[in-house]
Automatic annotation (TrEMBL):
<keyword id="KW-0496">Mitochondrion</keyword>
<dbReference type="InterPro" id="IPR002634">
    <property type="entry name" value="BolA"/>
</dbReference>
<comment type="function">
    <text>Acts as a mitochondrial iron-sulfur (Fe-S) cluster assembly factor that facilitates (Fe-S) cluster insertion into a subset of mitochondrial proteins. Probably acts together with NFU1.</text>
</comment>
<comment type="subunit">
    <text>Interacts with NFU1.</text>
</comment>
<protein>
    <recommendedName>
        <fullName>BolA-like protein 3</fullName>
    </recommendedName>
</protein>
<comment type="similarity">
    <text>Belongs to the BolA/IbaG family.</text>
</comment>
<dbReference type="InterPro" id="IPR036065">
    <property type="entry name" value="BolA-like_sf"/>
</dbReference>
<dbReference type="GO" id="GO:0005759">
    <property type="term" value="C:mitochondrial matrix"/>
</dbReference>
<dbReference type="Pfam" id="PF01722">
    <property type="entry name" value="BolA"/>
</dbReference>
<dbReference type="InterPro" id="IPR052275">
    <property type="entry name" value="Mt_Fe-S_assembly_factor"/>
</dbReference>
Length: 115
């Protein structure tokens, strides 16, 4: 985990740039298309789909370079309606409480569907 943490800042910056440009993510020497999910991404997405079955949009991205230390989550659900952003984030944190213990960081973006 320590070795992973050292390169975390540059990996995060690189991953965010790649996400914005929708290109291929580079993980160390390997390239992986953004359509291929890591085990951690799949596991977190499964938990969130179970907790928020009304979610109209869900995206989980490992932004730590593939080591599973940091994730970015985008979730849109009608279950967030009437709740402040901090309350929405608390719901996501609660759903992932066991997973968060093994993470270095987590970025959460929540929204309510516009329709």
């Amino acid at each position: 985990m320590l070795a992973c943490s050292r390169s975390l800042n540059s990996a995060v910056v690189s991953a965010l740039r790649l996400l914005r440009s929708n290109q291929t993510a580079v993980t160390g020497q390997l390239q992986r298309p953004l359509s291929t999910q890591t085990d951690g991404e799949v596991r977190i997405a499964k938990i969130l789909k179970e907790k928020f079955p009304a979610a109209s949009s869900l995206k989980v991205v490992d932004i730590s370079g593939g080591c599973g230390a940091m994730y970015e989550i985008h979730i849109e659900s009608s279950e967030f309606k009437g709740k402040r952003t901090v309350q929405q984030h608390q719901l996501v944190n609660q759903a992932l409480k066991d997973e968060i213990q093994n993470m270095h960081g987590l970025r959460i973006f929540t929204d309510v569907p516009k329709h």
